[in-house]
Amino acid sequence: MRTLAAPLCDHSGRFSALKAACLLFCLLPAALVLQQALAGTLGPRPITEAIHQVGEWTVRLLLLTLAVTPFRVVLDWPRVLLLRRMLGVATACYASLHLTLYAMDQQWKLGTVASEIVLRFYLTIGFVALLGLLTLAITSTDGWQKRLRGRWKKLHRLVFPIAVLGLFHYFIQSKIDVTSPTFYAGLFFWLMLWRALPRRWQGRALALPGLAIAAGLATAAVEALWYGLATKVPPLLVLAANLGQLRPAWQVVLAGMALLLLVLARRGIARWRGVPTRRVRAMAS
Q: How far apart are CA 186 and CA 183, in angstroms?
């Protein structure tokens, strides 16, 4: 029983409500897709719709995994580190389910699946990203950390290029409408820009508005560049569209500002309760 309960316990072996909530959160998307499949509400091409939904949740979980370290610092929330391994493993599981559903769509013709992966570029990079996620999930245990020692951190830094491959796969698969992948790419830009900050600035609320604006500008640039290359739409027209519409760039800015409000609210509550806000100095790479 202790072995079964281990994923829900903290480092001291006590039950963690936070980890239990995270596990339920990770299971919920798959349960919802299954419920839609059983109810027949996935549309005329149910397997294709399931593939898309599971793939999008893979990206979301991957970004949440990458967000653990920034959340720990800017929200002064050390316990969120308990969730990183679970979120990372869940990401690999959803990526595997994504491929499994694709094989199902191909009527389990594994030869066809293999040839499609080799011949179609977006499937190739998606498969490489899957292999990377599985490698990181398998080596995420305490045992592998001890075996690999200093090499473990170097290995797990591969999550960043893996995320780039996953987003690129999402862009190509989305074809003309890249609104969703552009938004997620913008969130990835924010995460990378935060890591590029000097350490003394990573925990400061004053840095968050600048990060939100910079990530929004990068998002607008990527959207314009993508449409310019993929559909020959003049990039300046796409950039101009961002001025009057709630495009992904603005959504990224709003998400960054929402995080700022959350940080200010959390710190305000801490001061009101008389609890000094700690500055988290140890940064995960």
A: 5
Predicted confidence pLDDT, tens digits, the chain (285 residues): 445 556 777 777 788 899 999 999 999 999 999 999 999 999 899 999 999 999 999 999 999 999 999 999 999 899 999 999 999 999 999 999 999 999 999 999 999 999 999 999 999 999 999 999 999 999 999 899 999 888 999 999 999 999 999 999 999 998 778 899 999 999 999 999 999 999 999 999 999 999 999 999 999 999 888 887 777 767 667 666 776 677 899 999 999 999 999 999 988 887 887 766 554 433 333
Q: Which two tokens stand for residue 169?
A: 């796969």
pTM of the model: 0.91
Among 281, 177, 161, 188, CA closest to 230: 177
Residue 15's φ and ψ, nearest 5 degrees, are -60, 135
- Tell me how crowded residue 15 is: count the other CB atoms within 10 A of its CB: 10
